[in-house]
Amino acid sequence: MAKKTAGRQRIDTTKLIEDRAHRQMTFSKRRPTLFAYAADLSACFGIDTAVVVFSESGTTLAFGSPSVDAVLRRHKDDGKEPLRGDADLDLGDLAARRRELKEAEALAAAEKARMKVIGEKVKLAVAEAERAGWWEADAGALGEAELPEFERALRKLREAVRCLVDKKAAPPAADAPA
Protein backbone atom coordinates (compact mmCIF):
# COMPACT_ATOMS: atom_id res chain seq x y z
CA MET A 1 0.00 0.00 0.00
CA ALA A 2 1.41 3.40 -0.98
CA LYS A 3 1.89 6.21 1.49
CA LYS A 4 -0.86 8.80 1.66
CA THR A 5 1.60 11.69 2.16
CA ALA A 6 4.98 12.41 0.68
CA GLY A 7 6.53 12.79 4.13
CA ARG A 8 10.31 12.54 4.17
CA GLN A 9 10.76 10.65 0.96
CA ARG A 10 13.81 10.94 -1.22
CA ILE A 11 13.23 13.12 -4.25
CA ASP A 12 14.93 12.84 -7.61
CA THR A 13 17.21 15.89 -7.87
CA THR A 14 18.33 15.17 -11.42
CA LYS A 15 15.13 16.26 -13.11
CA LEU A 16 14.22 19.93 -13.43
CA ILE A 17 11.38 21.15 -11.27
CA GLU A 18 8.75 22.36 -13.75
CA ASP A 19 6.92 24.95 -11.66
CA ARG A 20 9.01 28.13 -11.43
CA ALA A 21 7.75 29.04 -7.93
CA HIS A 22 8.59 25.57 -6.62
CA ARG A 23 12.01 25.75 -8.26
CA GLN A 24 12.73 29.12 -6.60
CA MET A 25 11.51 27.84 -3.23
CA THR A 26 13.65 24.71 -3.51
CA PHE A 27 16.70 26.78 -4.44
CA SER A 28 16.12 29.14 -1.50
CA LYS A 29 15.63 26.22 0.88
CA ARG A 30 18.60 24.10 -0.21
CA ARG A 31 21.25 26.79 -0.73
CA PRO A 32 21.90 27.55 2.98
CA THR A 33 22.13 23.84 3.71
CA LEU A 34 24.66 23.39 0.91
CA PHE A 35 26.75 26.27 2.27
CA ALA A 36 26.51 24.84 5.80
CA TYR A 37 27.75 21.45 4.56
CA ALA A 38 30.70 23.15 2.87
CA ALA A 39 31.51 25.05 6.09
CA ASP A 40 31.31 21.82 8.12
CA LEU A 41 33.63 20.01 5.71
CA SER A 42 36.12 22.84 5.94
CA ALA A 43 35.99 22.97 9.74
CA CYS A 44 35.99 19.22 10.40
CA PHE A 45 38.62 18.14 7.91
CA GLY A 46 40.69 21.31 7.54
CA ILE A 47 40.12 21.52 3.81
CA ASP A 48 39.50 24.51 1.61
CA THR A 49 36.04 24.58 0.08
CA ALA A 50 34.32 26.80 -2.44
CA VAL A 51 30.70 26.57 -3.54
CA VAL A 52 29.35 28.80 -6.30
CA VAL A 53 25.66 28.63 -7.21
CA PHE A 54 23.71 30.49 -9.88
CA SER A 55 20.06 31.31 -9.40
CA GLU A 56 17.62 31.25 -12.27
CA SER A 57 17.53 35.04 -12.23
CA GLY A 58 21.28 35.09 -12.88
CA THR A 59 22.38 35.98 -9.35
CA THR A 60 25.66 34.38 -8.35
CA LEU A 61 25.96 33.29 -4.73
CA ALA A 62 29.18 31.90 -3.29
CA PHE A 63 30.65 30.48 -0.12
CA GLY A 64 34.31 29.79 0.46
CA SER A 65 36.61 28.81 3.24
CA PRO A 66 39.03 30.58 3.61
CA SER A 67 37.52 32.51 0.67
CA VAL A 68 36.19 31.67 -2.77
CA ASP A 69 38.91 33.78 -4.41
CA ALA A 70 41.72 32.00 -2.56
CA VAL A 71 40.41 28.54 -3.45
CA LEU A 72 39.74 29.36 -7.10
CA ARG A 73 43.08 31.18 -7.46
CA ARG A 74 44.92 28.14 -6.12
CA HIS A 75 43.22 25.84 -8.63
CA LYS A 76 43.72 28.30 -11.46
CA ASP A 77 47.45 28.45 -10.72
CA ASP A 78 47.62 24.64 -10.61
CA GLY A 79 48.04 24.46 -6.83
CA LYS A 80 51.22 26.56 -6.68
CA GLU A 81 49.90 28.87 -3.95
CA PRO A 82 49.86 27.78 -0.32
CA LEU A 83 46.71 25.97 0.77
CA ARG A 84 45.60 28.74 3.12
CA GLY A 85 46.40 32.42 3.00
CA ASP A 86 46.62 32.57 6.78
CA ALA A 87 49.06 29.64 6.84
CA ASP A 88 51.98 31.75 5.62
CA LEU A 89 54.12 31.46 8.72
CA ASP A 90 57.06 33.71 9.25
CA LEU A 91 60.23 31.64 9.60
CA GLY A 92 61.02 33.48 12.83
CA ASP A 93 57.59 32.55 14.15
CA LEU A 94 58.19 28.94 13.17
CA ALA A 95 61.55 28.93 14.95
CA ALA A 96 59.92 30.44 18.05
CA ARG A 97 57.25 27.75 18.05
CA ARG A 98 59.88 25.03 17.74
CA ARG A 99 61.80 26.59 20.63
CA GLU A 100 58.61 26.65 22.75
CA LEU A 101 57.98 23.01 21.89
CA LYS A 102 61.50 22.01 22.96
CA GLU A 103 61.12 23.96 26.21
CA ALA A 104 57.81 22.25 26.94
CA GLU A 105 59.34 18.84 26.21
CA ALA A 106 62.26 19.64 28.53
CA LEU A 107 59.86 20.72 31.29
CA ALA A 108 57.85 17.53 30.87
CA ALA A 109 61.00 15.41 31.04
CA ALA A 110 62.19 17.27 34.15
CA GLU A 111 58.81 16.79 35.85
CA LYS A 112 58.84 13.10 34.98
CA ALA A 113 62.33 12.73 36.45
CA ARG A 114 61.28 14.67 39.56
CA MET A 115 58.26 12.41 40.06
CA LYS A 116 60.48 9.35 39.65
CA VAL A 117 62.86 10.64 42.34
CA ILE A 118 59.92 11.36 44.65
CA GLY A 119 58.59 7.85 44.08
CA GLU A 120 61.97 6.37 44.90
CA LYS A 121 62.21 8.42 48.12
CA VAL A 122 58.74 7.27 49.18
CA LYS A 123 59.69 3.64 48.47
CA LEU A 124 62.90 4.12 50.47
CA ALA A 125 61.00 5.64 53.40
CA VAL A 126 58.55 2.71 53.36
CA ALA A 127 61.41 0.20 53.24
CA GLU A 128 63.25 1.90 56.12
CA ALA A 129 60.12 1.85 58.26
CA GLU A 130 59.55 -1.81 57.29
CA ARG A 131 55.94 -1.16 56.37
CA ALA A 132 53.82 -2.91 53.76
CA GLY A 133 52.30 -0.08 51.70
CA TRP A 134 53.57 3.16 50.24
CA TRP A 135 50.84 5.05 52.11
CA GLU A 136 52.52 4.06 55.40
CA ALA A 137 55.69 5.99 54.54
CA ASP A 138 57.14 8.15 57.31
CA ALA A 139 56.22 11.73 56.40
CA GLY A 140 59.14 12.99 58.49
CA ALA A 141 61.59 11.15 56.25
CA LEU A 142 60.26 12.91 53.15
CA GLY A 143 61.57 16.29 52.04
CA GLU A 144 59.61 19.46 51.31
CA ALA A 145 59.43 18.63 47.60
CA GLU A 146 57.97 15.18 48.21
CA LEU A 147 55.31 16.09 50.78
CA PRO A 148 52.82 17.80 48.42
CA GLU A 149 53.01 14.88 45.99
CA PHE A 150 52.64 12.39 48.84
CA GLU A 151 49.60 14.30 50.12
CA ARG A 152 48.05 14.34 46.64
CA ALA A 153 48.57 10.57 46.30
CA LEU A 154 47.01 10.00 49.74
CA ARG A 155 43.97 12.09 48.76
CA LYS A 156 43.54 10.04 45.55
CA LEU A 157 43.79 6.84 47.57
CA ARG A 158 41.20 8.11 50.06
CA GLU A 159 38.77 8.95 47.23
CA ALA A 160 39.28 5.53 45.64
CA VAL A 161 38.60 3.80 48.97
CA ARG A 162 35.54 6.00 49.56
CA CYS A 163 34.14 5.04 46.14
CA LEU A 164 34.66 1.33 46.85
CA VAL A 165 32.97 1.63 50.25
CA ASP A 166 30.04 3.50 48.72
CA LYS A 167 29.64 0.78 46.07
CA LYS A 168 29.70 -1.98 48.68
CA ALA A 169 27.36 -0.10 51.04
CA ALA A 170 24.80 0.69 48.34
CA PRO A 171 21.52 -1.21 48.82
CA PRO A 172 20.91 -4.04 46.33
CA ALA A 173 18.77 -3.36 43.29
CA ALA A 174 15.00 -3.48 43.77
CA ASP A 175 14.44 -5.91 40.88
CA ALA A 176 14.73 -9.01 43.09
CA PRO A 177 11.32 -10.46 44.12
CA ALA A 178 10.48 -10.20 47.83
From TrEMBL:
Record bears the keyword Oxidoreductase: no
Annotated keywords: DNA-binding, Nucleus, Transcription, Transcription regulation
GO cellular-component term (any): nucleus
Domain MADS-box, chain residue ranges per copy: 15-67
This protein's record includes keyword Ligase: no
Alphabetized SMART domains for the sequence: MADS (SM00432)
InterPro entries per the UniProt record, alphabetical: TF_MADSbox, TF_MADSbox_sf
Entry's localization field: Nucleus
Alphabetized GO MF terms: DNA-binding transcription factor activity, RNA polymerase II-specific; protein dimerization activity; RNA polymerase II cis-regulatory region sequence-specific DNA binding
Name the UniProt record assigns to this protein: MADS-box domain-containing protein
Organism whose genome encodes this protein: Lolium multiflorum
